[in-house]
Amino acid sequence: MNRRLPLALAVAVLTLAARPAHADVTAFLGATTTPSTRGARGLAAGIALLAIGFEFEYSDTSEDLVKGLPSLRTGMGNVYVQNPIPIFGIQFYGTIGGGFYRERLGSHQETRSGSNIGGGAKITLVGPLRLRLDYRVFSLTGSPLHKRPKRVYAGLTVAF
Q1: pTM of the prediction?
Q2: Which of 5, 56, 112, 144 is deepest in the core (most CB within 10 A)?
Q3: pLDDT for residue 144 is more than 60
C-alpha cells in the first residue's frame, strides 16, 4: 500500500497541473521567392501544449511557364517552440519539420522528401482571431530545379 502512495500523489499533481491543449487552423497567402517571386497559398493545422506544438501544413506555389518558374507543393509535419504566454498579444515561434514535395515545370516533375526550418509570429487581433506571419526555408532532396526555396506568408488563424 505504501508503494502506491507516491504514484497516486504524482498522478494527482500532474492531473491538477495539466493545462488544456490549444489548437489552431491557419489559411494563408504568400509568395515563394526562389528563384523569383510567385504566389503561394495553403493551410496549416496545429496543436500546442504550453511551449511545444505540432503542426501539419500544406502549401501550393503556382507555376509560371513563361518565366520558367516551377510549381511547388509541400506537405510538411512540423514541431514548433513558442512563448506560451503572448507578449503584448504576440506569440513568437520557431519551427522545424519534414515531409514531401512535388516540383513541376512543364514535363519536368520531381516528387521526393524534404525538410523545412523557419519561424514567425502569431499576433492576436480580436477574440480567437490572429494574424500569422511566417518565413520558411525548404531543403528538397533528389533533383529539384531549386533545392532551397524560400517562402513568406501572412495568414488568418482561428484558435480554439
Answers
A1: 0.85
A2: 144
A3: yes
What would the pLDDT profile of 54-81 be if each residue is shown by its tens digit? 999 999 999 999 999 999 999 999 999 9
| Grid cell 510567385 in the structure block, residue | 38
Q: Which residues of 30-39 are buried (b: 16+ CB within 10 A; e: fewer)?
A: bbbebeeebe
Cα–Cα distance measured from residue 153 to residue 133, given in angstroms and rounded to the nearest whole number = 6
- CATH class for the region spanning 20-159: mainly beta
Are 55 and 45 contacting, i.e. CB atoms less than 8 angstroms apart?
Answer: yes
In the three-class reduction of DSSP (H, G, I as helix; E, B as strand; rest coil), residue 2 is classed as coil
Q: Are 98 and 58 in contact (CB under 8 A)?
A: no
Each domain of the chain, given as residue ranges in start order, spans 20-159
- What stretch of H or E contains 5? helix 4-17
Residue 22: what residue type?
Answer: H
